[in-house]
């Protein structure tokens, strides 16, 4: 890292990326929830199970980020 760049810029950049990642995950969660509801309404068990699996994966990814990567001073979702 160049000497003329403050250490704080690194945190800001990491925070910007994490915000975008969490926004993406949130959007995918909403989409999967909506698709799951539609599958449930159409009595499509195969699709419902697929979207339940997607939701599980997105929530696990969010939990991992919250535990291992997120800045402790920031709330992302």
Structural features:
single chain; 77 residues; mainly alpha; 2 helices; elongated
Short overview:
This protein is 77% helix and 0% strand. By secondary structure, the protein is mainly α.
Structural topology:
Elements: H1 7-41, H2 45-68
How is this structure best described in words?
The protein is mostly helical. It has a domain at 32-68. 77% of the residues lie in helices and 0% in strands. It has 2 helices and no strands. The protein has helices at residues 7-41, 45-68. The chain is elongated.
Range of helix content: over 70%
What letter string, H or E per element, gives the SSE order?
A: HH
Alpha carbon gyration radius: 17 Å
Structural class: mainly alpha
């Amino acid at each position: 890292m160049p000497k003329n760049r403050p250490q704080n810029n690194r945190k800001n950049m990491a925070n910007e990326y994490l915000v975008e990642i969490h926004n993406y995950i949130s959007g995918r969660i909403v989409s999967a929830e909506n698709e799951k509801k539609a599958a449930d309404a159409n009595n499509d068990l195969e699709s419902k199970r697929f979207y339940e699996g997607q939701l599980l994966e997105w929530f696990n990814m969010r939990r991992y980020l919250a535990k291992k990567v997120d800045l402790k001073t920031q709330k992302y979702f």
